Structures are given as C-alpha cells and as structure tokens.
Amino acid sequence: MKLYYSPGACSLAPHILAREASFPVQLERVDTQAHQLDDGGDYFAVSSKGQVPVLELDDGERLTEGPVIAQYIADHAERRDLMPSPGTLARYRVMEWQNYITSELHKSFTPLFHLDLADDVKGTLRGVLRKKYEWLDSRLGENVYLTGDDFTAADAYLFTVTNWAKPVGLGLSGLANLQAFQDRVSARQAVREALKTEGLAA
Ligand SMILES: N[C@@H](CCC(=O)N[C@@H](CS)C(=O)NCC(=O)O)C(=O)O
Predict the structure, then answer these.
(1) Residue 144 — φ and ψ, nearest 5°?
(2) Which segments within the chain are labelled E, that is strand?
(3) Ligand 1 neighbour 10 (Cβ under 6 A)
C-alpha cells in the first residue's frame, strides 16, 4: 500500500496512525505546490483532487480524505484503541472530534497559508481559530487525550493541525492543556518516527 503525503501536511495524521498500528505503507512524497511526485510525475494523475493524503490499496483503489483513511488504517490493523468498534458510542466520539478538527480547525488554517490573502482577513481568521482553541483547551481539561486515556485517530489529527499554529502566526499561549497535549503526543515513539521520516525532526 502507498500513502501519498507532503511533509507536515494533514497527511501526517494517517502517517502517524500507520506507524502506531504497524500498518505497512510505502511513503510517496508529493510537492503540493507543484502537484508533482518526486520522480516528476503529475500528482493529478494520482488524485484529481490534487490533495494529500491518498491511500493507495494493494488492488490499486485509491482512498482520499484524511479522517477516512485514518479509520481505514485503524480498522484494518484491528486497533480498537485507535478507532473504537463500529456502532459503539466511543467510536462516534472519535468521529465527532475528527469532524470538528476537519471542518472547524483544518479548513480555517488553510487560507492562512495563502500568501496573497489580505492581512486583515488573516487576523480575523487567527481570532476565530484562537477562540476555538480556547474552547478545545477547556474540553481537554485534565484528559490525557481527546476522548480519555487512549490515543486515537482524532488525537493524531489534532496534533498535526495544531503544529501549523506557529508557521501561520497563531498564538496559542496560555492554553496549558493544549500545550501539555502537544508535548504528550510528540513524545510518542510512532510520532517521533513519523516526524523524523518527514524531515521535521532530528
Ligand atoms: N478534505 C481533505 C483536505 C486535504 C488537504 O487540505 N490537503 C492539503 C494539505 S493539508 C493539500 O493537499 N493541499 C494542496 C492543494 O489543495 O492543492 C482531507 O481531509 O483529506
């Protein structure tokens, strides 16, 4: 199986999951600006969306949308700690967070990476994100992870998008629960390996 990724992009979340679950994937790096593969190939030929992540299955089928890829990996590795059993409330809780992160955080960060977006618009977006993170910090409370003691697919995703705060100038100071969460996740072996492989840590 292949996982198409770009260093530090949202594809880091399924990459972490694959390592957590010892799920074998061959990593294929994508330049998401040029939409090109390392060998110069056209990435649109892999995915007409032009976005990472893509999980290419052994039969050639390609799955897109990070939260869904993460579910596929956890389910196929039968790692119920990463993604609880279908039908259980615990699973809906993880999916509830995945949906929140994708719609409320991930896609509010995206325009902040656009160099041509006006500064005042960026300022407004940072303010919106800061409010959502303040709420999230209060929800995290003393919890080890988003839904309790187990690290799940949602935690890998929150960690990934929260790492974007610094490059886009979003201040998260004073959010102690969130900072503790980021530190806790970054200390996990699978996360350290994923960051190293993507060239984001020594
Ligand atoms: N809805 C998609 C969004 C994926 C996405 O936004 N990918 C970004 C990187 S984080 C990307 O590939 N951007 C390049 C582009 O849009 O051309 C998902 O959740 O997987």
Answers:
(1) -70, -50
(2) 2-5, 26-31, 36-37, 54-56, 62-64
(3) yes
Distance from residue 142's CA to the centre of ligand 1 (Å): 31
For residues 69-86, average pLDDT: 97
What's the 134 CA to ligand 1 centre distance in angstroms?
Answer: 25
Same domain as 71, residue 99: no
Whole-number Å distance between alpha carbons of 12 and 16: 6
Are 159 and 191 contacting, i.e. CB atoms less than 8 angstroms apart? yes
- The rounded Å distance from CA 52 to ligand 1 centre is 5
- Same domain, residue pair 39 and 62: yes
Q: Which domain holds residue 177?
A: 89-188
pLDDT of residue 150 exceeding 90, the answer is yes
pLDDT digits (tens, 9 = 90+) for 176-191: 999 999 999 999 999 9
Residue 202 falls inside a structural domain: no
Same domain (yes/no): 34, 98: no
pLDDT tens per residue across span 36-46: 999 999 999 99
What is the average per-residue pLDDT within 127-131? 98
Amino acid 142: pLDDT: 82
Work out how many domains the chain is built from and give that number: 2
DSSP secondary structure letter of residue 103: I
- CB of 52 sitting under 6 A from ligand 1: yes
Q: Per-residue pLDDT for 83 more than 90?
A: yes
In this structure, the residue with its CA closest to atom 1 of ligand 1 is 65
Cβ of 14 less than 6 Å from ligand 1: no
